[in-house]
Amino acid sequence: MKFKKSYIIPLVALTGLFGACDDMFEPAIENNQELSDMYDNPKVAQGLIGQVYSLVGGVYTTSPDVDLATDDAVVNDTYNSWSTMAIGGWKADMNPTSVWNVCYDGIHYCNLFLENVDKVTWFKGDIGIDKMFRDRFRAEAYAYRALFHFKLLQSHAGMVGGTLMGVPIHDRLETEGNYIQTRSTFKECVDFIMNDFNKALEFIPYTFADAEYEDAIPENMRRLVVLNADGSLNRGAYNRVYGVQNKGKIDGKIIAAIKSQLELLCASPAYQSAGTGIDWTIAAKDAAKVLSDAGKTPGNLSPIGYYWYDCTSGADNVESFKRTDYEHTELLWHDFNDGNGRSLEQNCYPPSLYGNGYINPTQNLVDAFPMANGYPITDANSQYDANNPFDNRDKRLAAYILYNGNTIGHENKVISVVMPTSGNSNIDANNQENKKSTRTGYYLKKLLRSTINLTPGSQNALKHIGARIRYTEIFLNYAEAANEAVGPTGTVGDATFSAYDVIKAIRTRAGIDPADPYLESIKSDKDKMRELIRNERRLELCFENHRFWDLRRWQVDLATLNTTAKGVEITENADKSLKYTTKDVETRNYKDYQYYGPIPYSECLKFSELQQNDNWQ
Length: 617
Description:
Blueprint: E1 8-9, E2 33-34, H1 42-56, E3 73-75, H2 81-89, H3 100-116, H4 127-156, E4 158-160, E5 163-165, H5 186-201, H6 235-242, H7 252-267, H8 280-293, E6 331-341, H9 343-348, E7 359-361, H10 363-368, H11 395-400, E8 401-402, E9 407-408, E10 413-414, E11 443-444, E12 462-470, H12 471-486, H13 499-509, H14 517-522, H15 526-540, H16 547-553, H17 558-561, E13 565-572, E14 578-586, H18 601-606
Antiparallel strand pairs: 1-2, 3-7, 4-5, 6-12, 8-11, 9-10, 13-14
Helix pairs in contact: 1-3, 1-4, 3-4, 4-5, 4-6, 4-7, 5-7, 7-8, 8-12, 12-13, 12-15, 13-15
């Protein structure tokens, strides 16, 4: 990657990002600025770090499309890149998983900011407050630089001649004379990321919040705060720099959660050979700390956690959102995808509700949901009825999957996907004549606002919240790591709960019988608990950009990676009862080297020093 020595700083929309601090950045700058313009104008400098904020959404996507490359979903668009990838088209020059450009752009802006942050006058007239702003923004740049390097590892790390390699570390500004691309090892990248996070934590609070009295200023932040004439901490200065108006930006809580994600990756089978020193015990201990610092236990699991995207009342009312006071009991870090919008529903609602039926969950995913008594549907004790396959199931099934007889939309319309008989029509059924109809017999329901109305002339629009990191994800991180480290019922570090406790709480919230005889029957079996934890992760986090990466870090066997995506065809018997016939819908065709993604082909052409991962062309 090659950058020139002179820079133009494009300002992003700053409204909402900087909130109550706007009064200190006047006059507002509307045009592109030269780098030197930022030194006496903090608004321009914040425009630079604002570029970083704007790129985060490109790496923490909450789009359901990624699951199209797994056994959880297919798409009714034959030109979709994720579908093309899944059926054998994944190449170094056709890689929808790539975050190379967005991450290195973000890293470049971080380095450009870090190189110039000390030259900026952040607050005129008070050198103490000026330093506080400088320290905070520097910390944010370190944190985001670490985040971008982590996401590059997830997408592009891989084996090169038997060594697990990472990506090129960019720890300084790339210029005309400094752009040779050589890869660091996976371990070197992890060490660099952790070091950046630790530097950030020296100057950033656990969470951005106003201190209503002096003792409310966090103890680890007091050394940074300017003093009043009487020697007391200047609470007003603290609130100006670290107050609630900054909520949503990266803070100590978010950093700890991202570290948990990285540590789970490092401890997983696909990355254990890197020698990072991070094992299951460390991953479990640090995940538990994220939860304990937030006051989270399995006993107070958010009751609305599994349908966080469609909460419409009380403190979780998405319509009443204000960035500075919005709080969600399930979401550790979130964004809002399209403001007041309906594009996701237009893509995914069935055609009878004026949608395009774009994403179709598979029979594979539907079958993964257990019965309400906790047993898998394949277990003899499950009481599963193949003639009534959706009865008495885990209630996440009805929340996430639009199946035959389920409801959706502002009028709770019952959706039928029964194949039409001669002379009849059913635009929601899985027939091949209507390109908007489902290919699997199912439509997506998760992530959609249930009260959206797409009827022409009566359309409405609602807020759409995106989960960058959920507390339930961190609970599942802990459960997986703790089970591997000490078994199903052991505890790690200061945690007062086990993997078993976490899974029981998540399943109870999903409507599983609290007695949960299946869970009780496997609570002493580490291998069976591993299978259950992985399945709970599949269900709870479906369509949130996890399964594709989970299957690879687990190094599941190639046959599992290539499980055929299945669907159901529903027809009427002579007595009007329904017949359910499972069918193959789409094959998966991954190769044994595709547990790791490629380095972009174009980058390897540009830089001879940049080694490609084994077997990628």
